[in-house]
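Re: [help] complex structure
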Amino acid sequence: METGTQVTQASRTLWGDAWYRLRRNRLALLALVWLLIVATAAITADLWVARAFGDPLTIDTTTATARRLMPPSLAHPFGTDDVGRDLFGRVVYGARVSLTVGVVATLIAVLLGVVLGALSSFYGKWVDAIIMRGTDVFLAFPYILFSILILAVLPPEVRGIVPVILAIGFLGWPTFARLFRGSVLSVKENDYVAAGRALGASDLRLMFRHIAPNAIAPVLVYATMSVGGAILTEAALSFLGLGIQPPQVSWGQMIESSRGYLVTAPALVLWPGLAILSTVLAFTLLGDGVRDALDVKMKD
Amino acid sequence: MLNYIFKRLLQFVPVFFGVTLILFLVANFMPGADPIQMRLGERSIDPALKARLIQEYGLDRPWHEQYISYLGDLSRGDLGTSIYNGRPVATIFAETYPYTIRLALFAIMIEIIFGIAAGVISAVKRYSFIDVLVTLSTSVLVSLPVFWLGLMLQFVFGIWLKDTTGGAFYLPISGASSAQFPDWVHLILPGITLASVSTAYAARIMRSQMLEVMNQDYIRTARAKGLSEKDVLVKHSMKNALIPVVTFIGLDLGAMFAGAVLTETVFNWPGVGFTLARSIFQRDFPVVFGGVTVMLFAVMIINLIVDISYAFLDPRIRYGERSD
Amino acid sequence: MYAHTRKLLAVVLAAGLVASVVGAGGCAPKAPDAEKPAADGPKKGGTMSFYIGEPAYIDPYNAQETEGMQVTQVLFDSLTEFDSADTSKILPAAAQSWEPNADATVWTFKLDPDGVFSDGTPVKASDFVYAWNRIANPATKNTLTGKADPSVISYHLGFVKGFDEVAGGKATEMVGVKAVDDLTLEVTLKQSFADFAYVVGHPALAPVPAALVASGVKVGDKIVPFGDMPIGNGPFKMAEPWAHNQFIKVVVNENFYGTEPNLDGIDFRIFKDPETAYTEFEAGNLDFTSIGEGKIKDALTKYGESKNGYTVNPNEQVLLGAETATYYMIFNMKDPVLKNAGVRKAISLAINRQTICDVVFEGTRDPADNIVPPGVAGYEKGAWPDARYDVEAARAALVEAGFPGGKGLPVLKLAFNSGGGHEKIMEIVQADLKAIGIETKFESADFPVYLKQLDEGKHQLARLGWVADYPVAYNFLFPLFDSKSGDNKSAYSNAKVDAAIAEGQKILDDDARAAAYAEISRTIGADNPVAPLMFYKHLRVGSDRLRDFTWDAMGLGDFTKVWIDEPAK
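Output below.
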């Protein structure tokens, strides 16, 4: 048991060091601040957006004609869209969907991947073989096409954010499973695990107390980057008309529905795109920062 | 070597059956759709006629029977016919695949040239302005929504540039050919779009590999022996740093052979990605099944070729001996 | 003032053009003479390029969607054709004349004796018999695959005697279609159908050479299936086999019996989406295309609006003429809530049609006031009293229906197919209904799923569009409102209306018949089984090379009159 406590202490300092290193990475910190701003704006949107810029989610059919495609002004920082709604407000509401999809879908993928990766690495043999062939199958399928298929299976009554989250989360597991399996296998080689096993620790205990905390770092790094990836996938699915359905707003859907205005009102395409770019970039930079902080070597 | 190829082919078997089975199951559990009705859209087809067409396409049979007959047809080289317009699926993909291949090869070329160059320069001039620029722009590139990048390139090079130069200079923003431009010009914008993310990754991998290799003993030895910096760089560092990049690019080429749904959609590129996506929307199952089948084989062949080519790049790899 | 300027501009442009042509010849142009040749009228030659999406079929037996019909109609001539100047009229085409019997059950068509297929074989009445049986027979094979691929548009011939037997597989030839001699076709119908001369104007009902369908068409030393290289009796013929997803090239058919076209040929260029086609058009690579959402105003400033809405000439290039098609909401009348006529009336009155037209379509669609669109015989302005925007009246109707302010109403499902650009329209409908207290919930699905749901009657409120096959009111009223029709997705059932629709086909006089159907439309409108929202309009634009190109209300081009004049660059 002594070894166990040592490991926990060691990992505590590992995380502590990591946090210290992360704080000194200016780019990563900037990214974190930006994400906090976006998240705060998205969470509090109901409190201020409609009051400041008018309801960005519903169309006022009596004024739509007069208010459409207005240029940027104080009242409408990004101008108005083609049906007279405030564009800035829509971008803010879009953040809600994007962040929710990004975070929840990644959580699902991590959970599935870690469980399957743990099973695979711990039991080896046929369990490992089946799960690894499963990852082969899933990775052999082009990602976007597979998500289109999954979304097509779901009945129309449930269309919207939930199926998108499920589809992205469901398709994300193989990478996490492989990653976790790999790092568990390398941790397993360590002396303290062998010692724990010799002392008669149960499988579960070994996994949770000793192996997982040390194998989770690469998963954490990849998960941070994956949030950005999930946001991109959501945007892509919405762009293909499969993702978020109105009256919910998402950035990808905003781009899709104003694609026809690329020539006459490019701002309609520009703003939601910049919103995606800045948010995903923040997750990428934060992921880089976490990787450097945790000193994880990844294939990139 | 032959042994290795055989082993790889054997590995393909479970993947093939896994993917196609999942596909058939997914199709079977799709909520009630009426692919036959797509032919007339909003004008309803006579029920008797519809029943006949459903029978014609075997859509009334249980999924496992459909799966078996799909395998049977496949073994005879028959991929079936489209529900939407009655055309042979094989013909549809024979028409679209050349476009996908052309675009993939062009994108890979961009990836090789710019990815590797940026990575090398960035590693050699570590901490310089160029290094920072490369690192930052690769982060931006991997964070860009591909379809949005495509739209922005269309706006800048197709619309804005055309307006500012009074129509004198601009790039085509759609399709694979036109009367006005040579075909390769049509590849430029979709090629850049498709290559964007992978080029960034290639540059990142190349950079980190170069940095790692350059710190290793044999490079120091080479330097100590008095070899010129250029020789060290080209003959020793680059060659060894290239292997992971080639692995990555090889995998990427395989992925591109599966078609690029988003790029093809934005640029109206008549390739397989778009065709497959549209067929899913239309529930044109024979086209979906046939297309995925062709794609699986194409990806497998490409991956095999890439694998084999390593052996030439790196004599240390002996395929017969690898354990996995 | 504006018109004057534009006219002046046109003259200047024409003058400049001729000057440059003459200049190229090496002569110094004289201004007064320069104008003359332009006025001389159509020039011969040139190839027009025309945007279409990839057609499903160009073989007439399955020609249905707009894409395929563009090509089919230049390759083939049916018995009659719709007058491109006024589509509610028909003109002779492959038939020189026709005559119904007294109750419009037997029709005799006299074929044009000069009619030939582009390979030189004369067109006989038996070619029509063959073509029509090919459509009716569900065992008909697709020439590209050799597999059975029945025509899905056999409904065109549903009234022909013997159709049911052939469709049911009990016979292979309809007893009602007879070649009396080489130039006389006699068609017997199951019931009176005075609009039949319009039906046979449909491009799908063209004659087809049986021998070539069976053998394929020889191109060089290859045999190409008929479906990729159809041989017809129209003004143009295939220049080469259909290059799928790329182009279909046609050239003048020198054997054509009618007016010889001015063009040398047409390149139907295939694009996957209209946006792309439009950019190609702007680059000067296309002569005719559709205009995407959001580009209409821009297009109008750049290219000018066509005077009659249908004909392209330089600086009058944007076509905004009405199409014979209606966009409407359906109410499922089997639904316990929507059974209530007052609720339907309230919904119809609550929708701000003008805003949809102005905002989503930038004024290029018209608010609908009837299910029958203009350009169709039997249209009457304002025939549907509740197809207008009146919030007060809508609220009053809700009160009358027993749901004041929407109280007591459940949340209604608002269904539409995704990916068809309907989202914004539906968002406006949703906002308008909310304004009178009716809450709705979107239910969008991929098209094939959506169609299935409508078929199974699972919908409450849903959208649909109806495009005329033939420009007659019957083509709207029978399919959409007859209680036995498969297209009656509102489940509207009114025995009087059913009888009146059938009865109208006994009236041989075209105007009297149109008046009778206008009356029937009014009767139906009082019940609000659907809420007509918009009439479609053309959203097309032609290049400045085109002269006198008419794209009619039915969405068919007149390729015989158009000519090409290269503008001065």
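The first strand of chain C starts at residue 47 and ends at 52.
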